[in-house]
Amino acid sequence: MTVVLPPTPLFGTPVEQPPHPDVLDFLARRRSSSAVTLAEPAPRPDEVTALIALASRVPDHGKLSPWRFIILDSEGKAAFAAKLEALAEARGDPRAAAKLVKLKLPPIGIAVVSRTVQHEIPEWEQVLSAGAVCTTLLYAALALGYGANWITDWYAYDAQAKAALGLAESERVAGFILLGTPKEPPLERERPDPAALTTLWRP
Ligand SMILES: Cc1cc2nc3c(=O)[nH]c(=O)nc-3n(C[C@H](O)[C@H](O)[C@H](O)COP(=O)(O)O)c2cc1C
Fold first, then answer.
1. pLDDT tens-digit series, residues 66-119
2. Considering only CA atoms, which of 134, 127, 139 is closest in space to residue 151?
3. Domains, the chain, ranges and CATH?
4. Nearest residue CA, atom 4 of ligand 1?
């Protein structure tokens, strides 16, 4: 069955914003799955399209869309991982090769690419928007019932790895969002105390 999203509101029309207690419940309990626990079934192509559509609705100052998506389906991801393996091997870096397990095991992934432009909107804000894309993609995948993990690892930063992925020199990997079905439920991790991170501003 094809995933059906609510219709996208028409430009300029009022969009009602009702409360969504179910979303609060989701946010209070959601958890990434370790990438190495992600297996088939993966989101289908129509679901990937839906995830990308949802992730493209993030706050974006100036409507610049300073990000893009690269789908790493099983074939593409295997070929990309093979290129990274060859890079790691050529450098005699077994630790780098071992790190690739997180990319190789999940059935599919989506690379979120930050592509900032010279503009009056500060670059920082364009980068933050790419981070919001990653978060939304992750949350949308969980809401669809899949497991997901946002990773970067060395190949997000390595010039040759980025070129192998097809990035221009000015582009950066905001994250690889790896997707699948967790073989086991993730264990809750330690969370910060929000009160310890919060102050009330006074002049
Ligand atoms: C920008 C960014 C990069 C990350 N890169 C990695 C990574 O390379 N390897 C890793 O194990 N976790 C990485 N993480 C951490 C996981 O994505 C995730 O935050 C952590 O497992 C906790 O997940 P949860 O709070 O969604 O449950 C990264 C997180 C962020 C925000």
1. 999 999 999 999 999 999 999 999 999 999 999 999 999 999 999 999 999 999
2. 134
3. 32-184 (3.40.109.10)
4. 151
